[in-house]
């Protein structure tokens, strides 16, 4: 039973892009939650940017490479669909990181500090400044401003994806309706004209009337 289930799952992953992307999406949500608990910003201006970019790019490239490996047999027949299928997991990962906010905020942090937990959220860390300790409130406000900007970008990503899916769905629906109408028209053209019921000619009706009139005269 386990082998059959694994074989069916493998076939579904290869054949259905939606099925594979749905599974990858749930896995990425869980992975992002695990990474969020262990994420700690280096609190050094140069390292902050490099560290955050690595968190954005490396998992995104890995997910795209894995999806490309799964759907590589379909590249010859469905190249465009395979390409989009490989890009979707990377886009989902980047969107999740923007929604979290602390990765972008870490990249934008430009002061040296110590990684500490915030008072608002226990799972969010920020760089508490060490040099100017009297300016902690202002720096914390800047950090949460960066975080809000990141979440706004994540919402923008979600909006663009939603609009794109709606447009592709409308195009697909129009193509399906056009495809169903064409076979019906072909079936009508292929019908035998001799089988169609034709109305009786007008001449036969006139001849019957003349015959009935002549019989009455006799």
UniProtKB/TrEMBL annotation:
Q: What is this protein called?
A: Calcium homeostasis modulator protein 6-like
Sorted alphabetically, which keywords does the UniProt record give?
Ion channel, Ion transport, Membrane, Transmembrane, Transmembrane helix, Transport
Q: Please name the GO terms of the biological process aspect recorded for this protein, alphabetically.
A: ATP export
Where the protein is mainly located, per its record?
membrane
Q: From the Swiss-Prot or TrEMBL record, state where the protein is found.
A: Membrane
What InterPro entries would the database entry show?
CALHM
List the taxonomic lineage: Eukaryota, Metazoa, Chordata, Craniata, Vertebrata
Q: Which domain of life does the UniProt lineage start with?
A: Eukaryota
Q: Where is this region: Disordered?
A: 182-218
Query: Bias regions of kind Basic and acidic residues — which residues?
Result: 208-218
The cross-references to Pfam families, in alphabetical order and at most eight, read:
Ca_hom_mod
Q: Name one GO cellular component term.
A: plasma membrane
Transmembrane residues, as ranges? 18-35, 47-68, 80-99, 152-171
């Amino acid at each position: 039973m386990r082998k059959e289930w694994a074989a069916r799952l493998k076939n579904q992953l290869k054949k259905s892009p939606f099925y594979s992307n749905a599974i990858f999406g749930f896995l990425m949500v869980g992975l992002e939650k695990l990474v969020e608990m262990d994420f700690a910003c280096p609190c050094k201006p140069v390292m902050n940017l490099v560290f955050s970019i690595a968190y954005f790019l490396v998992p995104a490239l890995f997910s795209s490479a894995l999806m490309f490996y799964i759907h590589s047999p379909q590249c010859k027949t469905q190249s465009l669909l395979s390409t989009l299928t490989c890009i979707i997991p990377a886009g989902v990962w980047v969107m999740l990181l923007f929604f979290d906010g602390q990765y972008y905020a870490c990249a934008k942090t430009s002061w040296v500090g110590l990684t500490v937990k915030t008072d608002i959220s226990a799972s969010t860390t920020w760089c508490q400044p060490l040099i100017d300790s009297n300016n902690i409130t202002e720096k914390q406000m800047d950090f949460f401003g960066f975080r809000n900007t990141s979440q706004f970008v994540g919402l923008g990503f979600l909006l663009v994806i939603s609009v794109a899916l709606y447009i592709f769905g409308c195009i697909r629906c129009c193509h399906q309706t056009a495809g169903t109408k064409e076979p019906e028209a072909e079936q009508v053209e292929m019908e035998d004209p001799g089988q169609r019921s034709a109305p009786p000619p007008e001449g036969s009706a006139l001849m019957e009337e003349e015959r009935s009139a002549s019989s009455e005269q006799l």
